[in-house]
Write a sequence for this structure.
């Protein structure tokens, strides 16, 4: 009976957001009569405006296959694979090495299962809500089940997204799917060792639809209300990292601390895995940031260069900060610093030059080190793998410094610290409140946390019937 209730709740959780999408004010004008338009070369070459004056209904676009750029498509296929590699195996190994040995398989399982669940949700409605025009707050339903998307050329024509005119829409949807996958996977680092697997599935599913998809629409769809305000987020500092970090912090408050946290040491069981995972994240991040150019062009090259500069600077900044404070530089520290730099440069990578990227990396390395050590102790929360300290704080640092260092020569956009602050504040407040509500509802219905006996035994054997010998 309990199992039946759990699956019933899971089905209800998935169907509730679909009902929410049917609110008339959130429906796009083009949903009722979808038409197509052929893009001329002049239209395809025109850049999208940085700031839209008002929400615009953009109809599905069909182009001849001769308008598809093979170089852009090849680069985006490569970037998509690189970003997926960031989650599996990159993040899985990075997180898996940091937990205790009795929880390593459960940590790997969480990332893998999230990858599978979000994939289906993206096909169901997530992509449509995030990246089709609708209201300023949520996209429409025209791409539900990828409806209307050309999967093969029909009469030498393919659909393209209005956000990526030189690649098939299938490639763009798949690229954005990898971002949607890694975001809830990042959250899992905050509540490692103590959340029920069934609760994880429900939380990740609902959160992806009611938190990630709307915020992606606000920031990245030209009619989104934060995009209209001029908020800059090149590759996901706000949409991915602040979003995930805040949800992770919220889960720490709702779940509480691990048993014996602060009373006994809980060191990483295998830093070799963590180091390999961090290295895979670093390499995969070039697809994350340079791929966000959605073209094989000079801006992709600049984003790649800025990414490398920031990560190297942040890794050294964290290492030296730790060396000064603790007396020894650690492998975990330099790896965490590299990730912090990657996070911080993500919103800025297509807007800043290499010198600015180095400065952003140095600030991120020091600030994230303090957040993962001093700040966490000050507030007394148990963020198992520092998801908030690295991704939440790193994303905030990067988003705000984007407003300071954005170069109009590189991006065509003027940065504004106050506008960036609006984007950060909105994401923090919305993400915290909605994540809290989702977690509390799950806790009151099916329960969030494993039993004390299961936690002491380890989630590998108690939840999955397996263990690493």
């Amino acid at each position: 009976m309990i199992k039946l209730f759990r699956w019933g709740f899971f089905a209800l959780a998935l169907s509730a957001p679909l009902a929410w999408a049917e609110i008339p004010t959130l429906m796009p004008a083009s949903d009722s009569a979808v038409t197509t338009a052929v893009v001329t070369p002049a239209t395809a070459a025109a850049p999208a405006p940085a700031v839209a004056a008002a929400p615009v209904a953009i109809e599905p676009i069909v182009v001849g296959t001769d308008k598809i750029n093979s170089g852009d498509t090849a680069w985006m296929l490569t970037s998509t694979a690189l970003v997926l590699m960031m989650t599996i195996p990159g993040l899985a190994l990075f997180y898996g090495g940091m937990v205790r040995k009795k929880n390593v398989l459960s940590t790997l399982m969480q990332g893998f299962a999230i990858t599978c669940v979000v994939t289906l949700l993206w096909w169901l409605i997530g992509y449509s809500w995030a990246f089709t025009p609708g209201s300023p707050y949520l996209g429409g339903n025209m791409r539900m089940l990828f409806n209307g998307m050309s999967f093969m050329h029909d009469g030498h024509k393919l659909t393209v997204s209005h956000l990526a005119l030189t690649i098939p829409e299938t490639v763009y949807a798949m690229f954005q799917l990898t971002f949607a996958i890694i975001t809830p996977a990042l959250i899992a680092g905050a509540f490692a060792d103590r959340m029920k697997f069934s609760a994880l599935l429900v939380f990740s599913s609902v959160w992806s639809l009611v938190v990630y998809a709307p915020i992606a629409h606000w920031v990245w769809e030209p009619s989104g209300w934060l995009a209209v305000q001029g908020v800059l987020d090149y590759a996901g500092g706000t949409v991915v990292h602040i979003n995930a970090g805040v949800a992770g912090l919220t889960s720490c408050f709702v779940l509480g601390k691990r048993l014996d946290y602060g009373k006994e040491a809980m060191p990483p069981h295998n830093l070799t895995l963590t180091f390999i995972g961090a290295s895979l994240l670093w390499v995969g991040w070039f697809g994350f940031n340079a791929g966000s150019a959605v073209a094989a062009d000079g801006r992709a090259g600049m984003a790649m260069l800025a990414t490398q500069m920031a990560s190297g600077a942040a890794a050294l900044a964290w290492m030296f900060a730790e060396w000064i404070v603790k007396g020894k530089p650690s492998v975990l520290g330099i790896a965490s610093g590299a990730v912090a730099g990657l996070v911080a440069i993500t919103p800025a990578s297509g807007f800043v030059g290499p010198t600015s990227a180095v400065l952003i990396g140095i600030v991120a390395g020091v600030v994230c080190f303090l957040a993962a050590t001093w700040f966490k102790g000050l507030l007394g929360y148990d963020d198992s793998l520092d998801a908030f300290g690295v991704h939440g704080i790193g994303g905030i640092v990067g988003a705000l410094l984007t407003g300071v260092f954005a170069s109009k020569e590189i991006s065509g956009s003027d940065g504004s610290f106050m506008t960036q602050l609006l984007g950060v504040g909105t994401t923090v407040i919305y993400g915290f409140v909605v994540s809290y509500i989702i977690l509390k509802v799950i806790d009151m219905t099916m329960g969030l946390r494993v039993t004390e006996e299961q936690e002491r035994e380890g989630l590998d054997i108690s939840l999955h019937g397996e263990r690493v010998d």
About this structure: The longest strand covers residues 61-64. Strands lie at 37-38, 61-64, 157-160.
